[in-house]
TrEMBL record:
Species annotation: Gordonia alkaliphila
Region feature (Disordered): 1-32, 266-286, 819-841
Protein name, entry field: DUF3854 domain-containing protein
Top-level taxon in the UniProt lineage: Bacteria
Length: 841
């Protein structure tokens, strides 16, 4: 990816800047005994498949003060102040031992002269990175040259040990004044594999830069030169691809596959070069952006911060609205949200103290008069508004444009029109950021039958045709998972989607990758469900806070979370803001997708999930051949624009047909609007099967529900219409070898003193709830001694309610003959259950 460098000659000063780093661990800078990473930076590296030990071995650390920065980049603190922190620092060494490096300041904090956000900053001139050593090997089998700092570190962690690895910072970072770096001598006599980012397939400059590097390696007598073609779009890097793997074994296997498949060209075909007119237009756009940025600085109003505070606060509020409202500042989650567009798309975060101060500096010149007249009026010294004034301005977040989320795909408005341009959309209250490959996306306003059929065929056959989808319902659900994010702003709620594989190798990871690529524009981050409810709550709140509208969880074995259940059915989400006691409320426009093999969908989660089942009778499904596309990931990335256009064509066809809603055999509670819209769209497209067999699927996936159904059947067979107590049932369960226990109470026989109470509590949570087998347990009356009595009822479809009787009462069970199931100990009589059931209602 292209990485900007700092202006030359900026540095100096000795001021130490204090930064609010409450969310970070203790951090130190270079020269300390230990160079630490903040939790956030460690997580960022982990998402790029860079383990902590690899980062530490390469000296990567987080700086939170000026003194912690490398000397060559301390000018950032002088120019931009606290806004740059925390800074992720990458020390580097060239083959001759000379030191260089790169740093990554806080997102959006550093802007170049053209108004472009600088993601990375490097030294300039001869000190800038050229061909940085990542892994030196004695007698290497070959050399890998990777574009990008994280890409190279990810390869260092997972590439075969015989390969030497070097990094270039930008596809032309190895050139100095038009001359290839002298360090390329390291490739002499060796096989070379160059790893550019995925945009080598779409950007001529990247393709040409990689090809020129290959030619330069050949000049330095490399044995051979090949290129790894990274599957993806935009500037997806090898670190993104490796981060999307399930584990280190898969990462190592993938690198071997990529090395074996390396080609003699950076991409299948050379991207078209810009025409002379397009180059002139691009240069004109850059010049206009640069001029506009300069004018904004020149035209900043002067605000005297020593005036009446009410006047100062009003004026600051006014200039911030004029400059940033609806562009980078929004009301999001009952707070002032700051939006930045990163390489992987837009991200929203609460405007921190440093970011807010930076925005104020860009919007106004704040001064404080000294009262002396120098002949040209009063002289003024630059001064910050006081903290209370800044806090008062920030407290007016409710007056900013509301933001419900960010989207990497076009959204459909209530009237059926489609958002096809990047920026804030008032109708959907979303910020839409469309990547370069979506330029020119067009959707027919009145799709013809032929256009609808072509769109249906592209999705059902070309995209999903090779997946082992179990039946037509699963095909319909896969298409629905693509369409739902496009219409999500029209829906109050959306069910979760569970990509449920029968076994390893059926393609659930590939299907998750396809869905994420199309609807989110990135490889799935492959987050796993948090292990406890508190972490689940924090994770979901953070996701909404970032503006995410598509959320992916991989390697899911069980979905059983009250927090997650509430999140999926919530139109808005209320939680405590992370790090403070204040509560926030955010609109919930997310679509959540899970993937795993034989996922157990427990209890209430089952009615919130739409399954996409992958099924096979082949014991080795990964050995299949004869696919439509030799590399589906590459095909999807190359055809993302067409796939989204196909989805939008089906949506437009539904609107054009008058938005018909098919009749439903049964309703999906809490998601009725979703069911109406998606069934209508798919029906017009000729895709049948939505929610077909959903109740049966739901029951099959709910293992806990199956145990409850079996337990209620045992009670019905054992007691018929008779009333019973928990004490009686607990005793009978212990004496019946064929008894079915409630889930979680399989060891009930060992709880001699509390069995009745445990059983009564479990029944209380299930009281009056019908199970799929048509049975439920109900309280009837309080018996002798305060014991609660229970009875089993059976649903009668003829009357739409409980039947008059459920089952015939069997003959009394002889309890003396069977051996007890309780553990026996020598010399100790079998315990007698004496606990009362009373009060367990």
């Amino acid at each position: 990816m292209t990485e900007s460098e700092n202006p030359a000659g900026q540095g100096g000063g000795s001021r130490e800047t204090a930064v609010d780093a409450a969310s970070d661990t203790h951090l130190t800078g270079p020269g300390s005994a230990c160079k630490d990473l903040s939790d956030a930076h460690a997580a960022e590296l982990a998402a790029s498949a860079i383990p902590l030990d690899v980062a530490e071995a390469h000296g990567v650390y987080t700086a939170v003060t000026r003194d912690g920065l490398p000397e060559w980049v301390r000018w950032l603190d002088d120019v931009h102040g606290d806004a740059i922190y925390p800074v992720l620092c990458y020390p580097m060494t060239e083959p001759d031992g000379s030191e260089t490096g790169q740093v990554k300041p806080a997102a959006g904090s550093v802007v170049d002269a053209d108004g472009n956000v600088m993601k990375y900053v490097s030294p300039v001139g001869d000190k800038s990175p050229q061909l940085v050593v990542v892994r030196e090997v004695e007698n290497p089998v070959g050399v890998i040259i990777a574009e990008g700092v994280k890409q190279a570190l990810a390869l260092a962690a997972h590439a075969p040990p015989g390969w030497a690895i070097y990094r270039i910072c930008g596809i032309t970072g190895w050139v100095r004044n038009g001359v290839p770096t002298k360090y390329l001598r390291v490739v002499r006599g060796l096989d070379v594999v160059i790893v550019p980012d995925a945009d080598a397939a779409t950007k001529r400059a990247v393709y040409d830069g990689a090809a020129m590097l290959g030619e330069a390696c050949e000049v330095r007598r490399a044995m051979s030169v090949k290129f790894v073609r990274v599957a993806g779009f935009g500037n997806t890097g090898i670190d993104d691809v490796l981060g999307g793997c399930a584990d280190d074994d898969e990462r190592g296997e993938l690198i071997l596959d990529l090395l074996d498949a390396a080609s003699d060209k950076p991409a299948k075909s050379q991207p078209k070069a810009l025409t002379a007119a397009q180059r002139r237009e691009k240069e004109a756009d850059k010049a206009a952006t640069r001029l506009a940025a300069q004018r904004r600085l020149d035209e900043r109003p002067v605000i005297h911060v020593g005036e009446d505070r009410a006047v100062v606060i009003d004026r600051l509020d006014e200039v911030l609205h004029e400059r940033f409202d609806g562009r980078s500042l929004f009301r999001h989650g009952d707070a002032l949200g700051h939006l930045t567009v990163e390489a992987k798309g837009p991200v929203v975060a609460v405007a921190s103290q440093g970011v807010f101060a930076d925005l104020v500096a860009k919007a106004a010149i704040t001064v404080e008069g000294d009262g002396r007249d120098d002949g040209n009026g009063c002289r003024h010294a630059h001064a910050w508004p006081d903290k209370n004034s800044l806090a008062a301005v920030e407290s007016r977040y409710r007056t900013y444009v509301p933001l419900d989320g960010v989207s990497a795909v076009p959204l459909v408005r209530e009237d059926g029109s489609v958002v096809t341009e990047s920026g804030y959309d008032v109708a959907t209250r979303h910020y839409v950021h469309l990547s370069d490959e979506l330029a020119g996306l067009s959707v027919p306003e009145h799709p013809s039958a032929a256009e609808v059929e072509a769109a249906r065929s592209l999705l059902v056959e070309d995209l999903f045709g090779d997946f082992l989808l179990k039946d037509r319902a699963d095909v319909a659900h896969a298409v629905a998972a693509l369409i739902t994010p496009l219409v999500r702003s029209l829906l109050p709620t959306s069910p979760g989607f569970a990509v449920n594989g029968l076994q390893a190798g059926v393609g659930k990871g590939l299907l998750l990758h396809v869905l994420s690529t199309v609807v989110a524009g990135v490889n799935p981050s492959l987050a796993m469900l948090p292990g406890n409810e508190d972490e689940m709550r924090k994770s979901l709140t953070a996701l909404l806070h970032s503006g995410a509208t598509s959320v992916f969880f991989d390697e899911t074995s069980e979905i059983d979370s009250a927090v997650l259940n509430g999140f999926i059915t919530a139109e808005s989400w209320s939680d405590r803001r992370l790090g403070v006691t204040e509560r926030i409320e955010m609109p919930n426009k997310s679509v959540v997708v899970f993937a795993g093999n034989n996922i157990a969908i427990i209890g209430d989660a089952a009615r919130r999930m739409v399954q996409i089942r992958l099924h096979t009778n082949n014991p080795n499904p990964e050995s299949r051949t004869g696919f439509r596309h030799s590399d589906l990931k590459v095909w999807v990335a190359d055809h993302r624009c067409e796939l989204l256009a196909a989805c939008l064509t089906l949506i437009r066809a539904w609107f054009d047909a008058g938005r018909p809603v098919p009749s439903h055999a049964a309703r999906m509670g809490s998601f009725e609007r979703w069911q109406d819209v998606l069934s209508g769209i798919l029906s017009v497209a000729g895709i049948d099967g939505l929610l077909e067999g959903w109740f049966e699927q739901r029951a099959a996936a709910d293992t806990e529900g199956q145990h409850w159904s079996a337990h209620l059947r045992w009670l019905a067979d054992h007691y018929g219409d008779d009333e019973f107590t928990a004490r009686t049932a607990a005793s009978d369960l212990c004496f019946d070898e064929d008894a079915e226990y409630p889930p979680g109470l399989e060891n009930l026989s060992e709880k001699s003193s509390s069995a009745a109470r445990e059983l009564g509590k479990a029944w209380s949570k299930q009281a009056d709830r019908w199970r799929p087998n048509g049975l439920r347990i109900v309280r009837t009356a309080e018996g002798q001694g305060g014991r609660m009595k229970w009875r089993i009822e059976e649903f009668d479809t003829a009357v739409g309610g409980p039947a008059a009787t459920t089952a015939q009462v069997p003959a009394p069970v002889e309890r003396a003959t069977p051996a007890p199931k309780m553990p026996a100990e020598a010399g100790r009589p079998m315990p007698v259950i004496t606990d009362l059931d009373g009060g367990v209602a």
